[in-house]
DNA sequence: ATAAATGTTAAGAA
DNA sequence: GTTCTTAACATTTA
C-alpha cells in the first residue's frame, strides 16, 4: 500500500503524540513485525520517554525519542500508523501501541510485512545513516542518476522499484512515471536516449512533489489526468489517448501501461 | 473457490 | 558481478 507520499501521510498521524510521555505500551505477543528483542528494548525504554520528532526517507520512517531511543518504521504492504484515544482497545492486527495521557499511537498491519526496528543510542542508528539520496534532495541529480545506472540492462520498471536507486517509488508510482514519459516499462534502462533519461529523472522528481502535495497532505484523490485514477479500474482508459490500458506482469508486479503511448 | 493486493528478500539459474 | 524468475511471508477483498 504505502509509497513515498502515503508514508509521509502516515508519519504525520503520529504527530499528535509528540512531546507527550508514554505511560503504557502494548505489544503483540508474537509478531514478525516487532521482533522479540526489539520488543524488550522498547518496553524497558519507552515508558516516561517521549517522541520528540520524526522523519521519513523513501518508505522508511524514524521516530526519535527524548532519551536515547529510536523507532524505525517500514509499513510493508498493509501497515498503517493511527492516532486514537487513550481508551483504544488493541485489535487483532495491532502490533504496537504507545499510550500517552491523551492519545494512543497505533501500528496496525494485517499482512504483517512491515518492520519495526528499535535502537537504543544517542545517535541515529547506522541503518538510517547509510541511505541512498532521497529523490527530492539536490544529491539526486541527473549526473548522479546517470552514474548509478550506467550500463544497467534491467528493465526500466525494475530499476524504478529498486529502493537503493529510487527510494520511495513503488508499483503505482513506477507505472505513473513510465506512462508520463511515454516509456514502455520493459525498455532496458541502458537503451534510454539522453532525452528519455532526462525526462524520466524530471518526471520522477515532479511526481514525488505532486504526490506529497496531493496524497501526503490529506490523501485527496489525484487529478484525472494522472494514470492513478484509471490503473486499477477494469476497462480503464489511457487519459492521454482514451484507448484501453494494458496490463502485464513486469518484475513480478502487475503493471499498467498504454501500449499506444508507451514505446 | 481462486486470485490478486501500492513490499521485500532469499535462493537458484542463466 | 548482474539479472531474472520464483517463492515465501499472512490476511483481506473481489
Can you describe what's shown?
The protein is α+β, with helices and mostly antiparallel strands. 28% of the residues lie in helices and 20% in strands. The chain is built from 7 helices and 10 strands. The chain has helices at residues 4-13, 36-46, 126-129, 142-149, 156-160, 171-180, 194-218; strands at residues 24-27, 51-57, 60-65, 70-74, 80-84, 94-99, 104-108, 115-119, 246-250, 253-257. Strands 1-6-7-5 form a 4-stranded antiparallel beta sheet. Strands 2-3-4-8 form a 4-stranded antiparallel beta sheet, with helices on one face. Helix 1 (4-13) runs parallel beside helix 7 and helix 6 (171-180) crosses helix 7 (194-218). The protein binds a DNA duplex (14 and 14 nucleotides) through helix 6.
Topology overview:
Blueprint: H1 4-13, E1 24-27, H2 36-46, E2 51-57, E3 60-65, E4 70-74, E5 80-84, E6 94-99, E7 104-108, E8 115-119, H3 126-129, H4 142-149, H5 156-160, H6 171-180, H7 194-218, E9 246-250, E10 253-257
Antiparallel strand pairs: 1-6, 2-3, 3-4, 4-8, 5-7, 6-7, 9-10
The structure holds a DNA duplex (14 and 14 nucleotides).
Amino acid at each position: 500500500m504505502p509509497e513515498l507520499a502515503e508514508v509521509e501521510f502516515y508519519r504525520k498521524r503520529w504527530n499528535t503524540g509528540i512531546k507527550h510521555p508514554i505511560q503504557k505500551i502494548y505489544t503483540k505477543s508474537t509478531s514478525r513485525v516487532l521482533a522479540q528483542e526489539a520488543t524488550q528494548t522498547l518496553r524497558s525504554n519507552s515508558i516516561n520517554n517521549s517522541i520528540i520528532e520524526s522523519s521519513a526517507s523513501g518508505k522508511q520512517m524514524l521516530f526519535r525519542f527524548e532519551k536515547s531511543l529510536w523507532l524505525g518504521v517500514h509499513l510493508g504492504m498493509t501497515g498503517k500508523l493511527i492516532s486514537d484515544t487513550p481508551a483504544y482497545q488493541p485489535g487483532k492486527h495491532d502490533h504496537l501501541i504507545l499510550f500517552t495521557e491523551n492519545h494512543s499511537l497505533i501500528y496496525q498491519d494485517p499482512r504483517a510485512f512491515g518492520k519495526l526496528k528499535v535502537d537504543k543510542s544517542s545517535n541515529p542508528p547506522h541503518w538510517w545513516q547509510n541511505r541512498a539520496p532521497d529523490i527530492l534532495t539536490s544529491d539526486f541529480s541527473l549526473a548522479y542518476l546517470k552514474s548509478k545506472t550506467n550500463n544497467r540492462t534491467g528493465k526500466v520498471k525494475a530499476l524504478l522499484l529498486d529502493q537503493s536507486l529510487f527510494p520511495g517509488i513503488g508499483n503505482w508510482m513506477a507505472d505513473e512515471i513510465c506512462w508520463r514519459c511515454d516509456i514502455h516499462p520493459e525498455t532496458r534502462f541502458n537503451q534510454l536516449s539522453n532525452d528519455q533519461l532526462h525526462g524520466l529523472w524530471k518526471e520522477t522528481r515532479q511526481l514525488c512533489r505532486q504526490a506529497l502535495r496531493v496524497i501526503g497532505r490529506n490523501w485527496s484523490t489525484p487529478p484525472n489526468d494522472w494514470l492513478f485514477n484509471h490503473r486499477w479500474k477494469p476497462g480503464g482508459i489511457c487519459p492521454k489517448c482514451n484507448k484501453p490500458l494494458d496490463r502485464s506482469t513486469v518484475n513480478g508486479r502487475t503493471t499498467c501501461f498504454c501500449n499506444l503511448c508507451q514505446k
